[in-house]
Amino acid sequence: MNRGDRMDKTIYVIRHCEAEGQAADAPLTERGWLQAKELAGFLSERKVDRIISSPFLRAIQSIKPFADIKNLEIEQEERLTERVLSSTFFLRLDG
């Protein structure tokens, strides 16, 4: 492929808006919904072909207003969930 045949792509990585917690089913707060609407406005003039989201409710709700405007499906990707690094809780006490 020569340089003239190259397909340029822009990827937007977006963190979820304010949510009520960190559980997978934690919904957006009222402020989070306002942020999601602002995000939709920010993205509305950009060319977007696909939306790929974590399956967590807060992530889906964060991009839903934009998906609705653009009439795009939100594709859920299980590999975008948060990793659990340890099931053991350590408490460090200094002094």
List the helices and strands and how they pair.
Layout: H1 30-43, E1 51-53, H2 57-70, E2 74-76
Parallel strand pairs: 1-2
Helix pairs in contact: 1-2
Q: What structural category characterises the helix and strand content?
A: mainly alpha
Strand order in the sheet with the most strands: 1-2
Number of contiguous helices: 2
Instruction: State the end-to-end CA separation.
Output: 63 Å
The dominant shape is extended
Rounded to an integer in angstroms, the radius of gyration calculated over CA atoms is: 18 Å
Relative helix content: 25-40%
Low-confidence sequence ranges: none
- The helix-strand sequence is HEHE
Instruction: Give the DSSP E fraction (strand runs of 2 or more residues).
Output: 5-15%
Mean pLDDT: 89
Major beta sheet, specifics? Answer: 2 strands, parallel
- Give me the count of strands: 2
Features:
two-stranded parallel sheet; mainly alpha; 2 helices; 2 strands; 95 residues
Explain the overall architecture.
The chain has helices at 30-43, 57-70; strands at 51-53, 74-76. By secondary structure, it is mainly α. Strand 1, helix 2 (57-70) and strand 2 form a beta-alpha-beta unit. The radius of gyration is 18 Å and the shape is extended.
Can you give me a brief rundown of this structure?
The chain has helices at 30-43, 57-70; strands at residues 51-53, 74-76.
